[in-house]
Design brief:
binds pyridoxal-5'-phosphate, Aspartate Aminotransferase, domain 2, 2 domains, 14 helices, 4-stranded mixed β-sheet, Aspartate Aminotransferase, domain 1, 410 residues, 14% strand, alpha/beta, 7-stranded mixed β-sheet
């Protein structure tokens, strides 16, 4: 058989993706410095030069998470693998896990608990609302045998930030371990693993870290390390078994576990070097400032946010589609005419909500202004009556009135 037998209608040649602006729920734009790092020569995963880079990478991840946890590294897989890794290592069949669900990803945590033989005690909150600490406290009191509390810090399906510090404090008082999803919060919202006492945490490379998808930074407290070391039953996954993985990531004498995605790890290293150069606090403030400027512009179009201001994520703006607007057509025109990707609503929000990501490298003034202008033109083309230039002006006014407290040239 020749290649024509498989794809006769079109000649297959080198793939050149178009240059998009990624302002959806992830992946977000990759920084050019990170793309460049990824294009460097491939090394073997046991090469001593690569091993030195891995040690630096662990320190950089510790900085990003604000933790001194020894067991901190990057899982070779997307955020979902980081999620599964926490559950599969920490649960033995029969374990009770309190899981908070206020969007899609909390629902996936329940799936994980049940598939690994745990018993999920579900604490539900409405989509668009944060996890309610009172409900969690009640669940902890009613289930003194619960071993783990699991929740999502930044719910990307709705744009809500939950109070991780308070929730972890409750778990500690009830002698529960915590698993926290920070795929969308890492780099974009304040996050302090040691100070808040988080036991198991996972994130993703493609949201606020300006890096391509495919890697999941994780970190585990000594309590988790001990728990996993002392399991009587083997971890129900060979690939994700922490005890085995540590022979690769943890020791001076690295031995083969799996072939680490070396070039992808250069990319994560570079993106975290950039985050350390910028400074975490600066990155948090930058995300907040661009979000508020964007919001000032959206308000000119009469667009309203789904989430109350107190719990709103700066990196994920979920907003109601204005009455009478064909939401799919707007997204199609943004992609076709402006190469600009935004996100649709998921689940209950499907057809009613847009999700605008301002994550990592995508969280910058050029994108805020570009997106507001593209929206204005699309709305105007579709027959909406608007005051031209007003959205961009509102964003500029916000920037002018709220200068960045510290400068950064990155
Ligand atoms: C994106 C996301 C995930 C899943 O990450 P993948 O890299 O797509 O596997 C998990 N949790 C949250 C909160 C996310 O936003």
């Amino acid at each position: 058989m020749t290649i024509e037998d498989f794809r006769p209608e079109k000649q297959i040649t080198t793939f050149y993706p178009p240059q998009r602006v990624l302002m959806g729920p992830g992946p977000s734009d990759t920084h050019p410095r990170v793309l460049n790092a990824m294009a460097r020569p491939t090394l073997g995963h046991l090469d001593p030069v690569f091993a030195d880079m891995m040690e630096e990478l662990k320190s950089l991840i510790r900085y990003a998470f604000q933790t001194r946890n020894r067991m901190t590294f990057s899982v070779s897989g997307p955020g979902s693998v980081g999620m599964e890794m926490c559950f599969v290592n920490m649960i033995v069949p029969g374990d009770k896990v309190i899981v908070c669900r206020n969007g899609v990803f909390g629902g996936r945590m329940i799936e994980n608990v049940e598939r690994h033989g745990g018993v999920a005690v579900v604490v539900d909150d409405k989509w668009g609302e944060p996890v309610d600490p009172q409900k969690v406290e009640d669940a902890l009191k009613q289930n003194p045998d619960a071993k783990i509390l699991a929740f999502v810090h930044a719910e990307t399906s709705t744009g809500v930030l939950s109070d991780a510090e308070t929730l972890c404090g409750l778990a500690q008082r009830h002698n529960c371990l915590t698993i926290v999803d920070t795929v969308t919060s890492l780099g974009g919202s304040p996050l302090k693993v040691d100070e808040w006492g988080i036991d198991a945490i996972y994130s993703g490379s493609q949201k606020c870290l300006s890096c391509p998808p495919g890697l999941s930074p994780v970190s585990f407290s000594e309590r988790v390390t001990e728990l996993v070391k002392n399991r009587k039953e083997k971890v129900h996954s060979w690939f994700m078994d922490l005890n085995l993985l540590l022979n690769y990531w943890g020791s001076a004498n690295r031995t083969y576990h799996h072939t680490a995605p070396t070039n992808s790890l250069y990319a994560l290293h570079e993106s975290l070097v950039m985050l350390s150069e910028e400074g975490l606090e600066h990155s948090w403030v930058r995300h907040q400032r661009n979000h508020k400027a964007f919001k000032a512009g959206l308000e000119i179009f009469g667009i309203n946010y789904v989430v109350d201001e107190r719990y709103r994520l700066p990196q994920l703006n979920s907003v109601y589609v204005p009455e009478g607007v064909d939401e799919k057509e707007v997204r199609r025109r943004l992609l076709d005419n402006y190469s600009l990707e935004i996100g649709a609503g998921l689940g209950d929000f499907s057809g009613k909500v847009w999700r605008f990501g301002l994550m990592g490298y995508a969280s910058r003034i050029e994108n805020v202004i570009f997106c507001l202008n593209a929206l204005e033109t699309v709305f105007s083309d579709m027959g909406m009556k608007l005051e031209h230039g007003a959205a961009e002006a509102a964003a500029h006014q916000f920037y002018a009135a709220n200068p960045m407290p510290v400068s950064f040239s990155g």
